[in-house]
Every structure is written in structure tokens, then in C-alpha cells.
Amino acid sequence: MMRSSGTDSIDWVLVVNNDVAFYPGVLKHLTRGVSRLLSHSGKSIHHHSINIPDKIPPGRTTFGVGFTSLCCGGEWSAVIFSRKLVQAIGYFDENFYPAYYEDDDYAIRIHLSNRFYAAKLENTPLLHGEIDGSKDYLSGLFSQLYLHPEKSPAVDAWRHSHELGMKVSVPYIEQKWGIKVGDFKSKTKLDCKSIDGLNNHCRVGFLTPFNDSTSNLSTWILAPATAERINNSKLH
């Protein structure tokens, strides 16, 4: 999707999960906030529509990623990426297929760029079901997962993608960045996806993909096995 959006001609993209819904007026408010982020000088700003953290390392002067008001683990279900960011570090690594850890990988790359910072778009509530407390909203998949789990083709497809995604993505991200996925859940977890983690505290084993000094942050090559899985997948 990020490829087809034509990032050479637009300043930013909003990437959302297919189970997210918007309150009236939120997109308009969000657009105004992103415009302020793109035009500001790199100094800390606290405005009713945006919140740029105070503690940003000096080199991070360019807005790269913005988060909505989604919380509690769902922050990456609706994320703004700037054109400059995508041009600098590339697209999502498609070897994370069909699911999981592509956002962790992208967060690591943002942090290692030492150029881009993350900020929050204030007052941008979205509907994402139980994950953000919006119990009055149930997406189609969420409804089937929890209300009719025993007789849903969608649930079967989700379980398949979950199992395959974990099997493929865990060893891939560990090899790519010299980390252990278990560290994401430990007391000294790899906090790379939060605003503070992106701006300050993300820690990985390698500074370049696969510890290859000839690679840059945008480097990835679609593995033949992954391409075959994509072509043969029943999920499309």
C-alpha cells in the first residue's frame, strides 16, 4: 500500500488496520496536526493537536512517524509516515509475511536512522474494539473471533496466518537485528515501537541489517520462499 500511494508526490501517508474505524472529524483534525509537524523547525512543540516530546536527541530534527490516540498496544494500528522517512529507510520488509514484527522492524530502522523523530497527534480517537476500550465497536474479524469462533472461515484464515507468521517472522527478525524476540516481553524489553523507544531507547544487536556493513536501512530482498508463499496464499 505504501508503494502504491505514490510517496514521491505526497507528503505523508496514514496506514491503518482494516479493523479500525474513524469518528467524524478525526481525519480532518489529524490532517491539520500533521501539517504542523511537517512545517515546524524541529524544536519541541506542545499544541492542542500535537505533542512533540521534549527529550529528542539533537540529530532527530525531521518528523518521521506520528501516532494517533490509540493506546494499549494498538498504537501501530493507525500510523502516519512522512514521505521523507519512507524515501530514507524504505518500505515495510515484505519478508515478514503473512504477519507480525514488520512494525518492530520498521521501528528499529526509524530509530537507527538517527534523523527522524516520532510524535503524537492529540485528540485523534479511533475505534478499534476491545483493544482501546471502545466496546461499542466490534470489527468483523473481532466479532467472529470472540462471538462465533467455532464456525468462521475468517477465524480459520486468521489462525493460519497467525501460526505461519510467528513461525516465519520470529527467526527472521532475530537474525536481521541480532536480538531475541523474548526480550520484547522481558523486564528489559526492546522498547522500539513506543515514542520514547523510537526517539531514544531502542536497543538492538546490529546497526545494519544482518550486521552487513554494506547494507543500509532500506535494504531487503524478497526471499524466493516468501515470494512463493505470497503467490500461493489463500489469504489474497
Short description:
The chain is of the alpha+beta class.
How would you characterize the overall build of this protein?
The chain has helices at about 25-40, 85-90, 100-115, 140-145, 155-175, 195-200, 225-230; strands spanning about 10-15, 20, 50, 60-65, 80, 115-120, 125. With about 240 residues, the protein is an alpha+beta fold. Helix 3 (about 100-115) crosses helix 6 (about 195-200). It is globular.
Which key phrases capture this entry?
five-stranded mixed β-sheet; alpha+beta; two-stranded antiparallel ribbon; single chain; 236 residues
Question: What is the topology?
Answer:
Elements: E1 12-16, E2 21-22, H1 26-39, E3 50-51, E4 62-67, E5 78-82, H2 83-89, H3 102-113, E6 116-121, E7 126-127, H4 140-147, H5 153-177, H6 195-201, H7 224-232
Parallel strand pairs: 4-6
Antiparallel strand pairs: 1-5, 2-7, 3-6, 4-5
Helix pairs in contact: 3-6
Total helical elements: 7
Report how far the terminal alpha carbons are from each other.
14 Å
- Largest sheet, described in full? 5 strands, mixed
Q: Main sheet: which strands, in order across?
A: 1-5-4-6-3
**Average predicted confidence as pLDDT:** 81
- Quaternary assembly: single chain
Strand residues, percent: 5-15%
Give the topology string: H per helix, E per strand.
EEHEEEHHEEHHHH
Number of strands: 7
Helix percentage range = 25-40%
**Uncertain stretches:** none
